[in-house]
Amino acid sequence: MTLANDQRTQLEALYAEMAPAHLTPLWESLAQLVRPEPKSPAHVHRWSYDAARDYLMRAGDLISAEQAERRVLILENPGMPGSSAIVPSLYAGLQLILPGEIAPAHRHAQCALRFVMEGEGAFTAVDGEKAVMRSFDLVLTPGWQWHDHGNPTDTPMIWLDGLDIPTVRHFDASFAEHLDVKAQAESAPPGDTLARYGRNMRPIRGSTADRRPHNQPLFHYPYFEWRPALEAMARSAPIDPHLGHALEFLNPADGGPVMPTIAAHVRLLPAGFEPRPGASPAATGFVGVGGGGTALIEDQAVTLHPRDVFVVPSWHRLTLRADEQLILFGYSDKAAQDKLNLFKEELA
Ligand code: 1HN
Q1: pLDDT of 344 strictly over 80
Q2: For residues 232 and 264, what is the distance between their CA atoms, to the nearest angstrom?
Q3: Which atom of ligand 1 is closest in space to residue 114's alpha carbon?
Q4: Would the CB of 86 count as within 6 Å of ligand 1?
């Protein structure tokens, strides 16, 4: 916008006068507000698991899980200091629970997923049923379902927490409460929900066996189930030129993404496979599960190691290269963007 000098002077005077009335001129900010293309404040970034783990274990010497409520190091995007966000819509953290510890029961409006980094045998209890966790299991605590964690084993357990905290904050919709006992009473034996709702079946609606919330019954997607499914797909299916072999985790209630705001998937890229680049609106946090390679995100190369976490902000072009067979887990805001009609893909 080009303005004559005296026009600019008079406008500035007008802005100064109206500022105390909390009024501002749209024409000064329109181009920033309604951009021709997205411009994320989030940076491309990778967190080394080994480095983060060292800090987390040192925190473990200084504060208990019970004291902290949740002993978590937040993975904060370097482009968004102070936001507690990995991308504008999502949160990520690394949580440690040491042998013998518990993290007390609470529930909140935010949806959470856990992706296990190391350890075996600690649990998350969801509405009183334990999901006993192993490395690379996916466990959900959907919004407003009670959850506590415990580690009865003799080794530390660490997982990635992925939540929709910034999205809920955006809508000013956060509610939370604590249970007045530390751990929930057991409502069902471990594995009960997987048996009832996790095999493409469900108890007859309204029967006494139908005990989980209808919109969000399932909360455990074990590694020993998803890994063979992905490997079998890789043996037989034609490969998608953009994604490699990819499987999305589903909510069996509606065949949609795992939670209303968050979608999650795993993918396998055979050694030497170089997918065609693709950009999508889904801001995604990835975890390396196996193998190695490189992620080229726009013009930044990120070396991929198992358990490292890296982030691809919305509409950043991603090209993955697998030096050896590469397996990745990813969670994104695609579920929310789909509902808002913002989702489309640009594939090269
Ligand atoms: C939460 O409930 C957990 O239950 C972890 O383990 C991280 C971060 C913010 C808000 C709630 C958990 C969280 C959280």
Answers
A1: no
A2: 19
A3: 6
A4: no
